[in-house]
Amino acid sequence: MASTKVTTTVPGEGSGPALVFTLQLHNETSADYRSAALEVSLADSKGGAAAQSTSAPATTFPEVIAAGDQATAQVVFLIAADRRDPVTLHVSVAGGTQAAEFSGKA
What we know:
The protein has 106 residues and is an all-beta fold. The chain is built from no helices and nine strands.
């Protein structure tokens, strides 16, 4: 996790202070995994949802992660510095099944 400032050129997307999370997904199944089923969200210290940004340095997972393969992406959330103690990152796969949850001061 890293702190950054996002400047966007994407219409309708905000700019400002943000957190960057580097996520690595390991497909340990025998079938290909479609990353569109992956959901990542961030709750701020007041329980509000932080807005996800697609602007740099955000990157995405490939559309398909082959069986036995892994991939990395950077997920960026706009969040004010005074709403980061704590934050909770939620990661869900395939139909909302929670895969991981991380919480702490950012």
